[in-house]
Structure formats: structure tokens, C-alpha cells
RWD domain-containing protein (Chiloscyllium punctatum), 186 residues
Amino acid sequence: MTANEEQTMELEALRSIYEGDECFKELSSASFQYRVGNLGDPKAFLLEISWPEMYPELPPNISLNAFFNNSISSSVKQDIIAKLHEQAEANLGTAMVYTLFEWAKENQEELMENHQPVVSAVTLSMTENTVTSHTSVAKKKKKEQLSKSQKKKLADKTDNRGELPRGWNWVDVIKHLSKTGSKDEE
């Protein structure tokens, strides 16, 4: 059987095995991605495997260069790839993409045991910008539109810092009761 025939058979097998699996993605007829772990899991990673021309006689190309993996340090990525290459060497001459994906799933904890999330400056600045933009939106919502006469009245009531004196909007209970009491008598 030729390499192309073996690749075609493996492609059909992969499509039937991973049909409906949201973790699996066929990038092309010779390139596949599999997300190992759940989306919210900090130890999840996206494994990409592609076939060279002489696959399965040659090991597949294994990559962790997807944007999804940016939080994983390069040393952990190199370690994962090295361990997957060992598995690939042991399976030379046979269809192995399914085997590699499943091995990675079974050994996820071990592969990611040295993983320390990398917090990039981009993430920090995005977080700061988000906080700043949320704060400015909140400030804009609180601001009311006042007429000129309302602004003048407000300026007359404020102190040197532009703040209203304590109790400026309190109701004088005695005056209020005496006004309502005189209306009740009439």
C-alpha cells in the first residue's frame, strides 16, 4: 500500500472517529488540530499534527505554535513535543495521529505538570484598558445634562471645591410639617 493510500484511509478513520467532537479540527487533508483539555482549563493546549509527504514512514510534524498556546512557556512546549516525538518514533510505519492525540489526552497532567501560566504585557495592558474603558463608561453614564440656569444655581450652592454642602437636599421637617399642618386646617 502506498503512502497516499494509507493517508487516505487514516483521514477517513479520523473523520469518522472525531465526527461531532468539538476538540478536533481538520485544517486540511493532511493537517489536524486537537484541543487537549477543556476551554477554561489553564492546562489545556492545542496540538497540531500534519503529515509530511512520506508519512507514515516519516514521523508527522508536531506543533504547539497556535495562538491558543501563548500562555505556555517554550520549555514546556518543547518537552511536550519531545515526548510526542518519542511516541511517533515508536509508531513509525503505522497510522498514528489518533494514537498521538489520545496519548496526549491521557497524559495531559504529566505533560503540563511544569506549566506556569505566562502573563504577557499584552494581557496586562488589555486588562488595564478594559478597566479604564469600563470606568470611563460608568462616569459618562452618571453625568447629567444640566441647563445654564441649573448650572448657575448649583454653582451658587457649592463650596470652593465644587461640592455641595452636607445636607443641601435635606427636608426641614418642622417647616414641612408646619406647611402641611396649615393646609390641613383650611
Remarks:
- The beta strands are 24-28, 31-36, 45-50, 61-63.
- Residues 121-142 form the longest helix (22 residues).
- The mean pLDDT is 79.
